[in-house]
Amino acid sequence: MMNRILSGTLGLACLVGVGFGASVSAGADEVADFYKGKTMTLLMSTGVGGSNDLNARILMDHLVKHLPGNPDVKPINMPGAGHVRASNYLYNRAAKDGTFIGAFVRFYVLHQALGGKGVKYDATKFNYLGSTNVSNVVLGAFHTAGINSFADLKTKELIVGGTGVGSGTVIFPNLFNTVAGTKMKIVQGYKSGHMIDLAMERGEVFGRAGFTFESILSTHPKWLPEGKFKILTQVGLRKEPGYENIPMAQDLVSSDADKRVMNIFAGVVAVGSPIFTNQGVPKARVAALRKAFDATMKDKAYLAATKKARLNINPTSGEELAKIVSDIVNSPPEVIAKARGALSRKGLVKCKEFTSAKYCRSAKKKKKKKS
After folding, report:
1. 236 and 353: one domain?
2. Range of the domain at 350
3. Same domain, 182 and 67
4. What is the pLDDT of residues 344-356, one digit of tens each?
5. Are residues 170 and 201 in the same domain?
6. Does the pTM exceed 0.90?
7. What is the pLDDT of residues 209-228, one digit of tens each?
8. CA distance 110 to 266
9. 119 in the same domain as 50
C-alpha cells in the first residue's frame, strides 16, 4: 500500500517571535526528515478481514497523507491469545521510534486490568492517537421472549446465545447475572454471532448481548423499527445518540461497588477502536501522529471511504482515550476482584448439549506428537 501525497514593532518581541517560529519549523522538519522514505508497520491483533482490520487499513492509508514525510504503510496481522500476542510484541519488541502503529480490539485493556495470563505490557503507557468509533454494547431480547424490561430478567429466565467464553456474548450476560441479579441462561459455543441471530429466529434462544448498536443497525436494519428485538440496557460511558431512552447498565444496579464494576466494562466499551503507538516514542513524533489522526477524522476523502465501507466514524481524542484506559487499569483492587468474579465460567450450557452440532463451534484437534 503506497502513500505519497502530502498531505510594525522591532526589538526583543520580534526576535522572540522569529525564534519561536524557527523552533516550530525545526520540529516539523525533524519529523518530516525522520518519516521521509520510511515504511510504517500497522500491527493488528485480529486476522485479515472483519471490521477492525478494514477500519485500520483505511485509516492508515489516509493518515500518512497528513503526516510530515508521507511514509508508506505495511499492514501485519498478529492474532492470538486474546489480543495479548500483538500487545506484547508492540510493547517489548517493536521499534519505539513512531514507525509502529497498533490497532487492537479493546479487550487487551480488560485482560490486563483483570490480571489475565501472559500480559507483558502496560496499556497505560502506550501513546494513544485516538479511537475512530465508539458504539455502545447492548443486551436485548427477541420479540418472542416475553421480556419487556431489564427488571423482567430478575424474575424470568432468558436463554441467550454465546460464542467463545471470552467474547462479549458471554462476558456481558455473565456480568449481569453476577452483579445485577438477572436470571439469564447462557448457551455457549455457537459458531458466530450470526448463528445466534438465526437461533433467535428459530425460537431456540431468545436473547443476545455483547454486540453494538452499530452492528444491529448494519446487519438487521429492520429489527428495531419493526419491534423484533427489544434493547433492555446499553453499556458505555455515555448514552448512544438517538437511544437516550434506553437505560445504562450502571443505573440498573444499586450499590456503589456494583456501579464501579459496571463502569470498568463501560470504560472498555468506550475504548472503541483504538489507534496508538508504543511507549518511548519521541514527543514530537507522538504530537505529529496525533495531529495527523485528528486531521484524518475531518478528511472528506477518508470519510467517503469509510462510508463506502459502511464504517461509522465517531472519534475520541488521544488524550481522552488515554484517560479511559488509565481509569480501567487503575481501578481499586476490590473493584477488580469483584469484576473478575463476574467472569466466572460456571453454569454455562454447552452449545452441542443444547442444539444441533452443526450450529456449534468445533473443538480444536490436538496435534499428534511425533515419536
Report:
1. yes
2. 137-267+340-359
3. no
4. 777 899 999 999 9
5. yes
6. no
7. 988 898 888 789 899 999 99
8. 11
9. yes
